[in-house]
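#dry-run=false #mode=assembly
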Amino acid sequence: MIALDGVSLGIGGQPILHNVSLRIDAGKVLGLVGESGSGKSMTALSVMRLLPEAATLTGQISLEGRDLTALSERQMCAVRGADVGMIFQEPMTALNPVQSIGDQVAETLLVHGAAGRAEAARIARERLTRVGMSPDRFPLDRFPHELSGGQRQRVCIALAIALRPKLLIADEPTTALDVTTQAKILELIRELVREEGMGCLLISHDLAVVAQMSDRIAVMKSGEVVEHGPTSDVLEQMQHPYTRALFEASRHQPNRTHERNGDPLLEVREAVRDYPLKRARLFGPRPSFRAVDGVSLTIQRGESLGLVGESGCGKSTLTRAILGLEPLQDGSILLDGKPVTPEMPADLRRRMQVVFQDPYGSFNPRHRVRRLLAEPFHLTGRPADMEARLVEALESVGLAPSDLEKFPHEFSGGQRQRIAIARALVARPDLIVLDEAVSALDVSIRAQILDLLVELQARHGLTYLFISHDLTVVRAVTDRVLVMRAGRIVESGETEAVFAAPRNPYTQALLAAAPVLPAA
Amino acid sequence: MRWPIQLLLGSALFAVFLIAALLSLIWTPYPVTELAIADKLSPPSADHWLGTDHLGRDMVSMLMAGARTSIAVALLAVGIGIALGVPLGLAAAARRGTLLDEVIMRGNDLVFAFPSLVIAILITAVFGPSAVNAILAIGIFNVPVFARVARGAALTVWPREFILAARVAGKGAALISAEHILPNIANLLVVQGTIQFSMGILAEAGLSYVGLGAQPPTPSWGRMLADAQTFFYAYPRLALLPGLCIVMTVLGLNLMGDGLRDFLDPRLRRAVR
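#status=ok
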């Protein structure tokens, strides 16, 4: 139905895609996987012809016999939205915040002259209902900010399918969503594809999602399709070594040999953290939101403790309290028996360090690595052997001493995450908090970083608090796990025991919703 | 990296007046305070390229010295604005949502509510008219502008993870503001600085025109305009020349500001990277 035939793309002379050939049939899902920079999104944008100015596109993209590459920009406008619909990764920014959801869906119909105003509103209603936004709960005059992430993604889908397109392009449609929401959105997409007879190009870096959703899979690497075939064949045969490497990396289990020591390092007792909200009335009482509600936990020396939960459950708030960045309203946090507060002494603060999710945002872009790494020395005063310690930290994460003079933008995402780990190591801490530390990385890089973390733990006797929404990763690297929901710990126990037989209904739902890669 | 055309054009335009102003410190064709009533209102000639004014002073010399006054006043006023406004804005951002934030920002609103002319009249009423007081008045007017820009920009930097990392390293708000926030908002402040600079030149001209700025015999474009008023029908040149200087300087600075903004825009920078 839609076929890409020998499509190549160059931007300003730089080759981006090379000889990409794919076909998507009506009512079927083609999963396109690959790591960042492999050309997945560029393939989608080539179909839409939403390319930068300096781009040169060759080859054929035929949609029901019509060659899209030969159309004028004006003709292409008629195709976009009508014949090809698209949904994006970030539902928070994909909708216009000042237009109601009904107007936004109706607008697509009006722009394409598919319906009059009243008719467009009727179809918008029908399409929104179709994606699970019932009329009683979600009238047309709702605005995007009144909806959750999953609901917004539903509106985006309603927009994309308003004109019953022949092809739906979903570019990482669930990457920004929680697992339980992801499961529902994926279910919706599959159902729509089957019932409306659309073709679907599903782009994802998550092999489990693609394996579960797709009829056919195409694997991309540096602008080329290296393997393409029916899902079961690709999963069983994995003819290309890159496909095999990709699958192995996603189910990578670091080899953990480190022993737990047993005595508690960090204790959190009945911690309560409230956020003040805006006053409802002038001079009225200030309401507050309880983000962490009586949480107690203990981390043993040398242990890896996992903390999982969906967005808004209070993980990050708890983390900031544990790091002594924000005060508690009730309860206490003790590190080695000494209280953790925003005013705690520098030597206590030194013993807890953190690695964040975003390898791009966690460094001041204007400082060199030397200065970035030396930041924790603020706590201890600069030691006489500072230079040696910086080099040692850098080498222990697999980087070269010459990298000290570089700026963060000269490194790749994985390398930056290594620098972030080196920065945490420099102060020789006891506890490292890993706040979604591998979530933004490609699977192969993620596997390397996980190995590095395990190795560093064994070598330096580190204790990890591993915070993540990614259950596979948590299972691979933690000894014990805590499940958090709405500010409370709902389940805790040895990781294997919790994953094998979850007792709390929420944990069960969470595990059931997580896409699983079929066993090799 | 391509330099925006506005930046080159604006810088060139402004450079002309800057060089004239600097040159006037060591040399002008004629002394600007020397009256030559016999030569008054003479048309442009080989001796006086742009003629003389109603007191026989050489127009070229007057304009050069006037540029010095205008630029010095505006520059110092921007300096006052940055020196006071940026720390206030950074402090407000560091303590966002607290009483300190409210006090600083509402104080800013209060100052902002008075046009610089009103502030100048207030100051003059107390201290008497002079160039120094014009600098103070325009400077005070600049403080809330820079405080707001600094606070707004700093607020977007504070939630970033490298700030959190610095806090984990035990750094306090003042150190973080100086080390991490300021370098990351500097480009916005530079752009705002050029814009305030051009507004300062306009304000200086305005204040001098109504007699609240530089006092005679210190030459100033605004004073020249005021003096030329009575002769406007007979000798429009006397008013047009300083007027043109003001327009060109302000235009140059505004182009420079626009160009700098494009040049320093992080999105453009990323594309270049």
